[in-house]
Design brief:
single chain, about 80 residues, mainly alpha, 4 helices
Length: about 80
């Protein structure tokens, strides 16, 4: 994946989490859940990098990414309610 696209996509998640009182940790937990893997420990940069690489390798197309992001936003909205 082109670094710029990856940067923009992670930014959409971070912005969405912040809009609903969340943090980057919520984003990482979502990515782990989408992949069916263990949540990374906060501060474990190697695990977080691996998680993000796996997530973006799985959700490559714009449509796949958009669907995952929409599910994330719905979850964050419901959590904040």
């Amino acid at each position: 994946m082109i670094p710029q696209v990856r940067y923009e996509r992670i930014g959409k998640f971070i912005f969405g989490a912040c809009m609903h009182g969340g943090t980057i940790v919520d984003v990482h937990h979502w990515m782990a859940d989408e992949l069916g893997v263990v949540h990374p420990k906060e501060g474990d940069e190697a695990a977080i990098e691996s998680l993000q690489a796996g997530y973006f390798a799985k959700f490559v197309s714009d449509e796949e990414f958009s669907e995952s992001h929409q599910r994330f936003m719905k979850m964050m909205e419901q959590r904040g309610a």
